[in-house]
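thread: overnight batch results

M.L. [08:02]
morning all. the overnight job finished for the chain we discussed friday. pasting input first so we're all looking at the same thing
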Amino acid sequence: MNPFEMFKNIGKIQTQLKEMQDKIDRLTATGSACGDSVSITLNGKFEMTDIKINPDSLNPEDLDLLPALIKAAHADAVEKVRKMLQEQAQTLTEGTGLSGFPGFGN
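M.L. [08:03]
and the structure it wrote out:
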């Protein structure tokens, strides 16, 4: 698409960006480790909104593993949020002509 054509659609693009931001604000993803022994929920801004540790699934003698489980659950949640954000960006750029520009859906 001609870059000048894109500017004709700037209002539409701004509306879509606002809609995307609203979706990001509502987005959540939960990552887990060791069969849900530890689960962490992040929002679309990668802020932790919840953490759950199932005490029944952890042996008190293995508590030194807890930091590694928390890190693994967090990494799982981060990957899920990144994937969701990438899908949102692709949806936004379809039909706008932005997909040919670096950082916009490619």
